[in-house]
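Hey team,

Filing this mostly as a record. A colleague (T.K.) asked me to run one chain through the structure pipeline before their review meeting, and I want the input and output archived in the tracker in case anyone asks later how it was produced. No errors, nothing strange. Just documentation.

Input sequence:
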Amino acid sequence: MSKAEILNNIRRGLKRGEASASQRAAVMARLDARADNLIPRRAQLPQPEQVALFKTMALEAAAELIELDSIEQAPAAIAQWLEQHQIPELVCASDPALQALDWSALGDIARTQRVAQSGDLASLTGSFAGIAETGTLMLYSGATSPTTLNFLPDNHLVILHESRIVGVYEEAWKRLRSATDGAMPRTVNLITGPSRSADIEQKLQMGAHGPRTLVILLIKN
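Output structure:
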């Protein structure tokens, strides 16, 4: 069924015809205004408290947190995590901020820069924002951040700076529109903890539609 057929069925169900020019104009004005929706009170906090809330919500969603003072500490922390989990290879985004780091701490662990493939065990990406109200990461696709890295490997390691944590979704979307001059990226991924599903016999299965493990490397500056 085509999009037009679906919309026509909805119109018939609502007993409405085609929208008039004035109705279309009213809808476009509302979309252009980008007015905020209801904002949860729990996320209306000073930024340090938003960071604390993000940590709490991310942990409740079964993400792992590794807190670091600077991004320069990330390679050693990543190497330690990979060694503990006996993972011999890391697939990375071509993010310039990641490429500029000293990766000698990985030692014998291979680090490759490419899109993810079936069978990859671990990937590393940056993130655009963290959303405190639900402990959610916002990532978007681009030449240096392929979406496959977010979903194909069993373990997803993500670097997030505390300065990029906002209280609510509306603020994250505003920042994204500003950063991209309103030209929205092809894909925006909102990730809350590792992938899971309880569709089968109401038993929780981790990694049902993506990584079994989400590790957030939270950078203080």
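Quick notes for T.K.: Residues 76 and 191 are 25 Å apart (CA to CA). The mean pLDDT is 91.
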